[in-house]
Amino acid sequence: MTTPQLTKNQSLVFDVLEKAEGPLSAYTILDKLRDHGFRAPLQVYRALEKLLEYGVVHRLESINSFVACAHPGENCHSHGIVAFAICESCGLVMEFHDHEVDHRLMAWVRGQKFKPEKTTIEIRGLCETCAA
Amino acid sequence: MTTPQLTKNQSLVFDVLEKAEGPLSAYTILDKLRDHGFRAPLQVYRALEKLLEYGVVHRLESINSFVACAHPGENCHSHGIVAFAICESCGLVMEFHDHEVDHRLMAWVRGQKFKPEKTTIEIRGLCETCAA
DNA sequence: ATTGCACACGTTATAGCATAACGCAATTGA
DNA sequence: TCAATTGCGTTATGCTATAACGTGTGCAAT
């Protein structure tokens, strides 16, 4: 799947996320886009919905925030399950993939006849710098 | 670590979760306990905080809900990372552990010198019954 | 016995996250 | 042309979570 041309609002939201140092909440994005005419949360959420669908943005469930995908150019849906390490001190997010983890999880759910749709793996802790 | 004697509020909240068919939100728990004198969200959240600490309740980050641990009697902190499969149709929650997954994830973070504190693995999808 | 501390609890208020419902405008394809 | 789709803006609302303050109780140290 290729990413379609982004609309104006989608581009604005995506740019904010790309330039950000770490994950942002929808309301933080909203604040950053007030000067560009954004007024209501829905403008952000609707753009995010599409960006998530296109695979160029990820949602971090455990902190109710969003990040641009770490793989510019491609989309992430083809990489299998995406995992994140999130620094609770500085907000640094590291994104990674591990096929063996995917296999184990998918093997388990297959054993239960469970049909997976969306998987979340998030490791909260301290990054090297903050742990020192 | 052994679970200390629960207080009245903690017991009430835990009982509600144990008897529930699936995960419950804090506000749903609140509603179920109105007859027992609960009036405010904090009464629920404070009890949940302790129950999470004791390892007898889990928080499902992706759906902002809580479930009683599937291992009555013992606490879950000793089992390594806990993973969940959550049916988006009927709310069924299956809890499981996979040491190989733990090892892979912990090996990865160790390579990054990241210090993990709390890990979330949640697979949303459809259970066997609902997928049929 | 009294003082000081830790802890659970109750209440009010507020902050933070997310969506429902309405209507309008532009685009597309039959 | 007409209907369907999609994006957009606005208002209102609902759901999730915590801050801040005060009360009461049990218990240990002096």
From TrEMBL, chains A, B:
Q: Domain of life of the organism in this record?
A: Bacteria
Q: Does the keyword Transcription apply?
A: yes
Q: Which keywords belong to this entry?
A: DNA-binding, Repressor, Transcription, Transcription regulation, Zinc
Which SUPFAM superfamilies does UniProt cross-reference here? Winged helix' DNA-binding domain (SSF46785)
Q: Name one Pfam family in it.
A: FUR
Similarity comment text for this entry: Belongs to the Fur family.
Q: By its UniProt entry, which PANTHER family does this protein fall under?
A: ZINC UPTAKE REGULATION PROTEIN
Query: What name appears for this protein in its UniProt entry?
Result: Transcriptional repressor
